[in-house]
Amino acid sequence: MRKVIPIVLALGTSLAFGGAALSQTTLKTVQDRGSLVCGVNPGLEGFASKDASGQWSGFDVDFCRAVAAAVFNDPSKVQYVPLSASDRFDALKNKQIDLLSRNSSWTMGREGDNGVVFTGATYYDGQGFLIPKSRNVQSALELDGSKVCVQPGTTTELNYVDFFETNHMKYETVHEGSADEMIKAYEAGQCNVLTTDASGLFAMRQRLAKPSDSMILPDIISKEPLGPVVRQDDMQWFNIVKWINFAMLNAEELGVGSKTIDEALKSQKPAVKRLVGTEGDFGKPFGLTQDWAVRVVRSVGNYAEVFDRNVGAHSKLGIPRGLNELWNNGGIQYAAPIR
Ligand SMILES: N[C@@H](CCC(=O)N[C@@H](CS)C(=O)NCC(=O)O)C(=O)O
User: Fold this and answer.
1) pTM score, two decimals?
2) Can you tell me which atom of ligand 1 is nearest the CA of 88?
3) In 34-121, which ranges are continuous DSSP H helix?
4) Residue 203 CA: which ligand 1 atom is closest?
5) Ligand 1: distance of its center to the CA of 311 in Å?
6) Of 24, 154, 178, 271, which is least surrounded by CB within 10 A?
7) Which residues are CB-neighbours of 215 under 8 A, at least 6 positions away?
8) Would the CB of 156 count as within 6 Å of ligand 1?
């Protein structure tokens, strides 16, 4: 018996070390590589799009930049991987990307099936319908007998079928593989309803040859909490991504933005001091520097700045903040406190 115990202990120890060596953290992988690999939409105005010079921009792109800012103090250290709706979760699961930031709706099934986990909701959305004004329809309940353009691999298709069946309306699905193809099919009259997240409808309506010939119905038929997604196997990385979103929201709540960050560093307000790291070292347990949130806000901005320039008042889309207002301003954006 005496001899067996050390053998068992030795075996246990080697397995423990073996396991640790095999599973390098995502943070370490990103740091060693020198860049973040971020999965984004191939092209959705306001969320992720690439200009003629190859520069990516958008609400989801800014989230990738915020993570790179926290890790590297340089928001440009991102490699963007454009992903279709159907490929996005496999790309994350297969480690082709470190983070998915692509107008993805948080659902229970996605966390159950894919080994992935949403870090929160960066944008509360809901599904709507775009129709030609010539249909003379005022409500989604009048859409009986529609031909509906929709993208496979999305929550959109499941929601719209539920909605039509619940309301005893007939429908025909026209599958299109990308936003571009959906627009083409709609303009060619292959479908007379285009459905997706309301934010996506704003973006797609703009790209029609005659936007004023189409209208977005007032009905919202689902909840679409859009947010960043990571793999389930790395709690440290999950926390980093989650707290970067919370830091941007807390910065807005505290009145700290990219233009006021230097003043914030001199602030005596306890909550501001904790955000900017002049009191406490809240990033340390997650492998981040004391100034992690300063890096994010200085180079990317707080939540309001990111929302406004990409999808809100100062963007082409002009989407009202609505549900995405902070909790103390009539919305439901509510970040856990840094303390
Ligand atoms: N939020 C929904 C829909 C996401 C989605 O992929 N929407 C489409 C329609 S706007 C899109 O972004 N397509 C862009 C493309 O693939 O080109 C989901 O997570 O399933």
Assistant:
1) 0.93
2) 6
3) 59-72, 88-93, 108-114
4) 10
5) 16
6) 24
7) 130, 131, 133
8) yes
Burial class (CB in 10 A: 0-12, 13-18, 19+), 249: buried
41 lines ligand 1 (CB under 6 A): yes
Distance CA(302)–CA(138), nearest Å, equals 37
Give residue 215 CA to ligand 1 midpoint distance, Å: 19
Q: Which of 50, 154, 201, 223 to mutate to test the pocket of ligand 1 (most atoms within 8 A of CB)?
A: 154
Residue 226 carries which DSSP code? E
216-266 confidence digits (pLDDT tens): 999 999 999 999 999 999 999 999 999 999 999 999 999 999 999 999 999
Are 152 and 86 in contact by the 8 Å Cβ rule? The answer is yes
